[in-house]
């Protein structure tokens, strides 16, 4: 079998495609509901509940999903997860009632739960020490591309073939990707027939102690009792709760906000609904490059990740509030796009942090963080629609900006260079210059 130079870049590409499909499958409901609303006579609150129930199932399996990836390996768990959520995406097309849709959307969330913890664990095995952030920036670029392509493709399918075909087509694409991932990826680069010895040496040389600083299959459990006693560990989780409230608010409600409040046509969602996600992607790719340059140059995590993320939260707050109060619909989209873009800096920093701080337990760390963050996915659609219904969209959007200011403080409290459980898990050691 012919070896492939830098095969780990193919791993990053597959990860990006998985995130792209995952977020296409999440955003498709926000477009499909524009037709489903009249067919099933849905209220705004019911739309918010339908969006939120995905996150109930998603949250339940975050920590178990992380542990399963650590124990059984990301190849099996991530392939199974993709297969599960793709099947239940297709089943959404058979919707006959609001209750049916509610149940299927919840079970669909079970399948997507292992994705983020699994990807963190995958990267802790496959990428160099100074590639974790840029790797996540490409993965999360897929997350940003998902709403863009998902909105465009869903809108086209809905307008030409009806909402049910959105779920059928997206589900089939997911099943194909699951088969491809299982065929190409192994848990460790050392197990892959495509990886050269030179690449394995290069990965290991980037770590001072690769045995302890790289992820691998393990039957150990993270020291949960001590972790949960750490206030900084909770700050780590709640930074992502705040960012996720903003991201999930945009993901699930942006199309209906633009149509009902800003009076954009459904056809204009091709650009107005995708511009914020373009800004999100650009910010992540640029941020990932400079953050990993800082890490490869020997910077500590506080300087390389905490300070930029804190500043990004502050800027996000300013831009989102400006967008909420802007009198011009076009200017509002521009401000909101910049606001979401700044959230991308936090995203690449916090997701790569698990591999920096605890590679062996990167799945558990990521699962804990995303459990807290997923509760924002449950809360954001419901609370945003309630605030919009009773106070107006200006207040609903501005609330996202206010929360972002709290996230700026939590990043400074976290102090990521010091282990959450000193003595049991080593503190982060900067790359030697």
Average pLDDT confidence is: 90
Tally of helical runs: 18
List low-confidence stretches: none
- Beginning-to-end CA distance, first to last residue: 37 Å
Secondary-structure-based class equals: mainly alpha
Which bin fits the share of residues in helices?
over 70%
Content of β-strand: under 5%
Observed structural traits:
mainly alpha; 0% strand; 18 helices
Write a compact overview of the structure shown:
Helix content is 78%, strand content 0%.
Could you characterize what this model shows?
The chain is mainly alpha-helical and 433 residues long. It is built from 18 helices and no strands. The protein has helices at residues 8-39, 44-60, 62-72, 74-92, 98-112, 115-126, 132-161, 164-184, 197-205, 210-213, 224-228, 231-260, 269-272, 275-296, 301-325, 329-357, 362-390, 393-414. It is globular, with a radius of gyration of 21 Å.
Q: What are the SSEs and their pairings?
A:
Elements: H1 8-39, H2 44-60, H3 62-72, H4 74-92, H5 98-112, H6 115-126, H7 132-161, H8 164-184, H9 197-205, H10 210-213, H11 224-228, H12 231-260, H13 269-272, H14 275-296, H15 301-325, H16 329-357, H17 362-390, H18 393-414
Helix pairs in contact: 1-6, 1-7, 1-8, 1-12, 2-5, 2-17, 3-4, 3-6, 3-17, 4-5, 4-6, 4-8, 6-16, 6-17, 7-14, 7-16, 12-16, 12-17, 12-18, 14-15, 14-16, 15-16, 15-18, 16-17, 17-18
């Amino acid at each position: 079998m012919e070896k492939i130079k830098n095969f780990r870049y193919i791993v990053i590409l597959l990860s990006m495609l998985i995130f792209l499909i995952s977020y296409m499958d999440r955003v498709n409901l926000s477009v499909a509901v524009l037709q489903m609303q009249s067919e099933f006579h849905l209220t705004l609150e019911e739309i918010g509940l339908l969006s939120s129930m995905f996150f109930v199932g998603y949250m339940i399996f975050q920590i178990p999903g992380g542990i399963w990836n650590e124990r059984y390996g990301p190849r099996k768990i991530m392939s199974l997860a993709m297969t599960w959520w793709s099947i239940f995406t297709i089943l959404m097309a058979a919707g006959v009632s609001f209750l049916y849709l509610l149940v299927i959307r919840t079970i669909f969330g079970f399948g997507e739960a292992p994705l983020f913890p699994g990807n963190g664990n995958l990267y802790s095995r496959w990428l160099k020490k100074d590639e974790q952030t840029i790797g996540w920036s490409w993965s999360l670029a897929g997350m940003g591309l998902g709403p863009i392509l998902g909105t465009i493709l869903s809108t086209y399918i809905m307008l030409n073939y009806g909402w049910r075909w959105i779920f059928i087509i997206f589900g089939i694409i997911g099943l194909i990707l699951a088969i491809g991932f299982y065929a190409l990826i192994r848990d460790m680069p050392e197990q892959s027939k495509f990886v050269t010895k030179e690449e394995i040496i290069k990965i290991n040389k980037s770590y001072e102690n690769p045995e302890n600083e790289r992820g691998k299959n393990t039957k150990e459990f993270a020291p949960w009792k001590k972790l949960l006693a750490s206030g900084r560990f909770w700050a780590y989780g709640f930074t992502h709760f705040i960012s996720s409230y903003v991201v999930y608010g945009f993901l699930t409600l942006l199309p209906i906000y633009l149509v009902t409040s800003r009076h954009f046509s459904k056809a204009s969602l091709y650009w107005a609904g995708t511009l914020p996600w373009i800004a999100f992607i650009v910010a992540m790719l640029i941020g990932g490059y400079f953050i990993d340059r800082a890490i490869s140059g020997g910077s500590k995590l506080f300087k390389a990740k905490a300070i930029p993320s804190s500043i990004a939260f502050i800027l996000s707050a300013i831009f989102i509030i400006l967008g909420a109060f802007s009198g011009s619909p076009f200017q509002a989209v521009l401000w909101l796009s910049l606001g979401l873009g700044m959230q991308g800096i936090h995203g690449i920093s916090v997701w790569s942090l698990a591999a920096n701080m605890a590679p062996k337990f990167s799945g558990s760390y990521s699962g804990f963080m995303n459990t807290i963050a997923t509760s924002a996915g449950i809360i954001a659609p419901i609370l945003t629609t309630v605030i919009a219904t009773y106070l107006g969209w200006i207040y609903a959007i501005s609330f996202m900006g206010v929360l972002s200011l709290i996230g700026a403080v939590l990043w400074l409290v976290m102090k990521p260079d010091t282990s959450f459980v000193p003595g049991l898990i080593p503190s982060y050691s900067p790359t030697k210059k």
